[in-house]
Specification:
The chain is of the alpha/beta class. Helices cover 20% and strands 35% of the residues. It has 2 helices and 8 strands, in the order βαββββαβββ. The strands form 2 sheets. The protein has a 4-stranded mixed β-sheet, with helices on one face. It has a 4-stranded mixed β-sheet with strand order 5-8-7-6, covered by helices on one side. It is globular and about 45 Å long. The relative contact order is 0.21.
Length: 127
């Protein structure tokens, strides 16, 4: 099971501001922070998401094929979070819509954060 996910950043202050805004819309708050990282969660016993300056001191890079998926309870919220990420300076990687073919309820929107990390926001709700 996933406890938390961290994404590398080269500008902790900028990344933290992006995720304060974006994850705040999902009700998440900062749960931990230090001089090299910030982490958010909806509850201390639930999975969290963090941004971190790499421990080895080398520049953070984007993992090819790596993606973090944020689950929400409605298609409207998928649309809002995706739009909010873009308004905050994120890059579109796939507009919200149904994925998975006929009969699928998997509704997702994809974006990259300010450091190029790929995320999606999705729901399995039928409407």
């Amino acid at each position: 099971m996933i406890g938390y996910v961290t994404l590398g950043t080269n500008d902790l202050e900028r990344a933290a501001a992006f995720y304060d805004e974006l994850l705040g819309e999902l009700g998440a708050k900062r749960m931990m922070e230090g001089d090299r990282f910030v982490a958010w969660s909806n509850h201390p016993e639930r999975p969290g998401l963090g941004v971190i300056k790499p421990y080895d001191g080398q520049p953070a890079t984007v993992g090819n094929g790596t993606m973090v998926a944020l689950v929400v309870d409605s298609r409207d919220l998928v649309d809002r979070i995706h739009a909010h990420a873009l308004a905050l300076g994120g890059k579109d990687e796939g507009a919200p819509g149904i994925r998975g073919g006929e009969g699928s309820t998997f509704y997702a929107g994809y974006f990259r954060d300010l450091d190029g990390n790929k995320l999606n926001v999705f729901t399995m709700a039928a409407e």
